[in-house]
Amino acid sequence: MRFTHMQPRDWLSVVMPLIAVLVFGDMTLAVQPASSKTHEVEMTAVESDVVIDGGGERYKAWTFNGQFPGPVVRVTEGDTVNFTLHNPKTNIFPHAMDFHAAEIDFLKNYRAINAGETISYTFVAKKPGVFFYHCGAPPMIQHVARGMIGAILVDPKNPKDWPKADREYVLVQSELFKNPDDVQAMFDRKFDHIVFNGGIFKYHPFVTGGKALEAKPGERVRIYFVNAGPNEFSSFHPIGEIWDAVYESGNPANKHVGVQTYVVGPGSAATFDVVVESAGAYPLVTHSLTGALRGSIAVLVASPDAKPAPLMPHTPWKPEVPLTEITPPAAP
Ligand SMILES: [Cu+2]
Fold first, then answer.
1. From the CB of residue 46, how many other CB atoms can be counted at a distance below 10 Å?
2. Are 144 and 173 in contact (CB under 8 A)?
3. Residue ranges per domain, the chain?
4. What tens digit of pLDDT does each residue of 188-201 get?
5. For a tag on the chain, would you pick the N or C end, based on fewer CB atoms within 10 A?
């Protein structure tokens, strides 16, 4: 190449990239994702009553932060979580916290602490997904059944790993035992209800105090689904629709498409995408019908008027519908 014969514009095309590399180094650095964050997450074990149906029935629950399920924790893949659990002096029982999103020593970190004690530990959320968290104090079956359960979302570091959702909800399924002290009934699987987010038909608009989940036609609705158990499997199905995608454990790498029903075992979770094609009602159920008909029907109503909603609507549940509007569900 003879530079003397080049026009000024040609010179620029040769020289500018060289200058850029000298000045800025490797240009790919400019498109690296934002660095990971550190989150301070504190929860308090609260032994208190919660409302479990639209008539205002109360239940002697054990909770994180006074709500059943506990608050949704949301971080991004690679983030650090500094977690602290308080068990106040006013409590009676030992409690603990087990995050399925963590990969750390169980004996040291997930041990139960007595009333009046505090425990802290740190973990890095290395894998994206939706994960269960729960109290692991013995008997764990009772601490889970009484409400010490919740969900942690670990969003993928690269948001382009899956389609953008237009609307997101978190549903935590669990069994409800009317007598919270009857541990034998828990071992014998004698549950009275199966519920989503701690309420009997909480998202059923025809039941007293129930309110549907909302979406607009054509929206991609993403449901982060956790099955807390303690014992029953969930067979999660959208009546009138088909799951466009199911991501095992909520990891974008674990994608299934065109799924009618997907089994989520106790202690497991999955993320479900559905694009609601047209206006109407789409009940989301566990197709294990003894469960659906005893409390776990969440109706997704698609309408152009749908309003924005939080991840876990109506939690804690404070039903406002007057008792005169009672429409009891059909007996199972
Ligand atoms: Cu507990």
1. 23
2. no
3. 39-157, 167-325
4. 999 999 999 999 99
5. N
Distance from residue 184's CA to the centre of ligand 1 (Å): 17
Contact 282, 238 (CB under 8 A): yes
pLDDT at 21 over 60: no
Residue 54: name the closest of 200, 188, 196, 161 by CA: 200
157 CA distance to ligand 1 centroid (A)?
Answer: 32
pTM for the model = 0.86
For residue 224, list its beta bridge partners: 170, 271
Nearest to 237 by CA among 298, 304, 327, 306: 298
Instruction: Give me the residue label for tokens 């007057």.
Output: 322
Ligand 1 centroid to Cα of residue 29, in Å, is 46
Q: What's the gap in Å between 62 CA and the centre of ligand 1?
A: 7
Distance, CA 179 to ligand 1 centroid (Å)? 16
Same CATH topology for 39-157 and 167-325: the answer is: yes
CB burial of 300-315 (b: ≥16 within 10 Å; e: otherwise) equals bbbeeebeeeebbbbb
Asked if residues 143 and 114 have their Cβ atoms less than 8 Å apart, the reply is no
Tell me if 297 sits within 8 A of 197, measured CB to CB: no
Q: How far apart are CA 178 and CA 67, in angstroms?
A: 18
* Contact assessment for residue 271 and residue 223, using Cβ atoms and an 8 Å cutoff: yes
What is the 45 CA–ligand 1 centroid distance (Å)?
Answer: 7
For residue 240, the CA-to-ligand 1 centroid distance in Å is 38
Tell me, what amino acid is at 132?
Answer: F
Instruction: State the DSSP H helix or E strand holding residue 23, giving kind and residue range, or none if neither.
Output: helix 8-24
What are the pLDDT digits (tens) for 226-273? 999 999 999 999 999 999 999 999 999 999 999 999 999 999 999 999
CATH number listed for the domain at residues 39-157: 2.60.40.420
Q: pLDDT, tens digit, for every residue of 61-80?
A: 999 999 999 999 999 999 99
- CATH H superfamily, domain 167-325: Cupredoxins -  blue copper proteins (2.60.40.420)
Distances (CA, A) of 308 to 138, 164, 173: 40, 16, 23
